[in-house]
Every structure is written in structure tokens, then in C-alpha cells.
Amino acid sequence: MLALEVGTSMSLAIATVASPLRMDETGVVRIGSSRVMLERVVHAFDAGASAEEIVASHPTLELGDVYATIAFILKNREEVDAYMAKSDAEAERVHRKWERRFSTHELRRRIRERAAQT
Fold first, then answer.
1. Which domains does the chain have, with CATH numbers?
2. I want to staple 6 with a disulfide (CB 3.0 to 4.6 A). Which of 10, 50, 88, 104 is the partner?
3. Can you tell me the distance from the alpha carbon of 18 to that of 21, in angstroms, rounded to the nearest whole number?
4. At what angle do helices 63-75 and 38-46 cross, to 10 degrees?
5. What is the pTM of this model?
């Protein structure tokens, strides 16, 4: 903790804030003790959501952790963008893998046929 003298008769104790970000065993960055991924907060913040709106959408988050995360995003935008690009690429790779493995084309064809019959 750092103490500052403000004026002649007042002091202000300033504590350093520990980052709420943590990397899980799979390499995904999560917020605080929640399972909410950094990507969720970045996307919401970039879409214009306030910290309060982000917490309302993800009730397991703590408001202070979201503010600290937003501060981290703003101070480390290049690194966050690089992480996001890597995360988005991995998500796309997994999505393509599952699409190949569990194709929905046949299911969609049958649904269209049934809809046409009614």
C-alpha cells in the first residue's frame, strides 16, 4: 500500500489492485473466481456495454473485477487484441472440426421437407 499526502492535513492510502485475470489449465483467460472468459468481457465492452451491464449479463462476475479487467484491456490493447485473434482462430478451428464430424446438412434437409409438407 502506498500513502500519499494530500494538502496539509489529509492523506490517502492507495492500494495496488491485483489483476482479476487468471489463466486456466487449458490456456483460457478467465475473470476472477468465475468461469467467464476474457473474450466475453472484451466483446461486451467493445460493443459499448458498461461494467454494470456486463455484470448483469454475467452474475458470477464481481463489479470490481470487471472494472479492473476493462482497465487492463485499455492499458494492454495490443496484447489483448493478439490474444483475441488467437482465441477467435482456435474457436473457428474447433467449429469447423465439429461441423465436419457432426454435419447438420441432413438434419436441415429433413426439417425443410417436413416444413414443406405442412
1. 19-117 (1.10.10.10)
2. 10
3. 9
4. 70
5. 0.72
Residue with cell 502506498: 2
Whether 38 contacts 29, CB under 8 Å: yes
Amino acid identity for residue 45 in this structure = F
CB contact set of 45 (below 8 Å; sequence gap of 6+) = 54, 70, 73
Type of residue found at 92: E
Q: Which residues contact 83 (CB under 8 A, 6 or more apart)?
A: 29, 38
Question: Quick one: which of 69, 64, 37, 66 has its CA closest to 54?
Answer: 66
